[in-house]
Amino acid sequence: MKESRILKCTSYILIPILTLIIIITAFYEVGKEVVKEDNYNSEYFKTDDFLNNFMYLLSDGTSELIYDNEKYNSVEDGENKICYYGNFEEYNYNNIKDFYYLIQYQNLAFTNVELTENTNTIDEIKNYITQEDGKKANIINGNVEANSELIKNKALKYFNRFNFTYYTINIEEQNQNLNEYEYENMTEEYYTEDEELSTNTVTREKEYHETNIADFQIYTTYKEEILLGTDNIILEQIINILSPYEQIMIYIMPVSAILLALILIYLIISIGHIKGKEEIDLNDLDKIPLEIIYIISFFIIGMIICIPVAIIEYNNTNLNLFISLFLLAYFVSYVFGMSSLVTTIKRIKAKAFWKYTITGKICKWFIGFCKKIWKALKGGYNSITATWNKLAKLILIIFLYIIVSIILMAIFNILGLLISIGIGIYLLYKFNLRINCYEHIERHLKAIYDGDHSSKLNPDDFTKEFQDIVKYINDVSSGFENAIQEGIKSERMKTELITNVSHDIKTPLTSIINYVDLLKKENIENEKAKEYIDILDNKSQRLKKLIEDLVEVSKASSGNVKLNMEKIDICELIKQATGEFEDKFKSKNLDVIYNANEENIYINADNRYMYRIIENLFVNISKYALDSSRVYIDIIKNDLKVKIAVKNISKERLNITPDELMQRFVRGDKSRTTEGSGLGISISKSLTELQNGKFTLNVDGDLFKVELEFDII
Amino acid sequence: MYNVLVCDDDKEIVKAIEIYLSKEGYNILKAYNGNEALKILKNNKIHLIILDIMMPEKDGIETLNEIRKTASIPVIMLSAKSEDEDKINGLNLGADDYVTKPFNPLELIARVNSGIRRYTKLGNIKDEENQNIYSTGDLIIDDNLKKVSVDGNEVKLTPTEYNILKFLTQNKGIVYSIEQIYKNVWEDEAYAAENIIAVHIRHIREKIEINPKEPKYLKVIWGIGYKIEKI
Fold it and tell me: What ipTM score was computed for the predicted complex, to two decimals?
């Protein structure tokens, strides 16, 4: 039941339809009342109420005309004066032009008829009014003429007032305290400035005007069919369309409401349950912060509902447009509203209502933050997380400082401000102390990073918060220092071991070499024995060379070499070295092509080790270069560096990588074991690097290329 | 008949040296540690000592110190210690020569010969002051006869080699670059000197030095030039 897709889909389809029915019914009921109200207004002119008001107005107007005609717009018509009371707009009648009147008193007239060429004089206006169709009530010489008994009676009743005596007052204002109110208040009571009621004993001069209904001529016409109708045509149209179904709607609406309620209850129960899943299923939509969903839905629904409302407001009469826009707005609102509702329900059911809300997240963070501060203030954290402790204290101090400052300033004004500034400066000073500590630590760490492990931080230089950090840093740098010393020591020990072992090997080797030599000099007939002795001789010499190279490579690679750096000319050195190797090169018919872009190029190096580097390279060339090939030695100087490139063609195929070649005990041709130790390149590389040079080896096919790079001076 | 004392804890090495030197006509006395050597030295007329450094009881350095207290006989250190510091140390303590193990027997013989000659014929050279005769140590250049001799043995040089050697010996102790040598010897601009000088120098070294790789007289200062050592 809970997991049925069909039921859910049906629900989602039924909900808007049922809701629509309910809305339409409600709309109809409300609309009906609104239209009724409007129609009531249009009938107003036919009622006693209107007549009463109308007559009262006219009678009021006539008295106004007599006393106060000065305040109206007026037109002089020969001896007559025509005043305009204006339209009866304050009584909110729309089609006032269908309602005319004229009141005349002696040579004064009062009318609402618009003055045109044909209505310039009182008589013309009279004609205009009397010629109009409609209900009329004319009062001439005290006689009421009306085409309706009702109006006649009313008119008689109201215009009897004109029999009263009216008078104008000419006040001799002896008491200057009199207010204008007293003017209208016809009693002799008045209010003094102290707002006390008192009676006045001023003498007055009164001018009496006795008026009678017979002094007036009143002409009125109002049309029988004044159609005001309703404001809203669309509303009326809809009500008209719906009215035949009124009875049906009254029955359908409660049914729809009950059904809707049932469906909603079903949905609330079943939402979020998916086949094969125990817990409430939350999709991506359900993980968008709820506030965002609400705001988006609210705005879209609000905007789209404005469209049909605006149509009603602006009295557009296109019913079809209204209906289509209304339905569009309705369904868009439904989609958004329902989505918001569904996701809200799902979240509540999954007990994740706050989880995916911005408010929830902020609250959670804030609560966590407060908890941390609280815990830190209580000292609940151990020293590793002491930073929190400090931060919490800092926040508390700032907070207290602000409060204290406010209180101080509130109580002592300027003095409080000064005290507060003083405290602020003191706090800044304390704060600055800590910043200095931080900077000190940073500098120290930089020094450690740069390789200075021996210096230590002095704990006395730091405030007590930093004692732990200082201790840790000192321990770490001691650790480094020890490790480095250990490393150096073990490297040195290795070199020493190799050196010592080599001494121990050399002594027996001396005997071997010497006795082999002596054996060679013995008169040995046996050819085989001679051959064996040669092998012994060869191998013992090789062993000797190996041991020497071994010592050298271990010293060079461990940096255990005393360098005597001086200014040397690399070109001179290359020339000297080629001179040394001239015979060897010649014997293999190697053509040395020397090329330097300058005569003298000076570098800082130890001349003996520099020669060792070159010697090793040349030895390699003399051993491994292809016979009768060319050897290129290029010395290229640029702004800061000099590059010595030595290139030759290998006799054998080079089937190993440059990296392998530079490793110890590797030779270009692995199968050959006759001469050399395979350490030459390794020694050269180490020695080059010891002298701050760069050693690169490239193998390109049979081209063997070594490049040395040094800073020039 | 010169007496050579060979002192080494390795008996086979002592024996091998004995074999080589006996062939050269020297009389060999053998010692296997420093004390023995000193004892023999006290009781015999010795012309040259070959002394190992690493020995039991009394090592070569101590022994050398003892010897130098009383005698000025030539001492050749023979050691497996081949570091520069070892050599410098040995020579500074009064050794006349330093040979590293494993040694070339011919080189050792040559050095023994040189030592003996220098010791026995010391003071015979009186004409050092003579004009046109230049010398350093046992290297003598007689410009009158155009003859060069090392340890009394005449050396045959080509005219160019002779000129280079003469120029350097005349200015012994001073380092000259290839260019400067070219200018002075050829009396011409060193335009394409290249490595001609270097080749000549090597040839000279091969002729006048016992071990050209470790020259005594004509030294190479790599990257700077050449010089004749002032001895």
Answer: 0.74
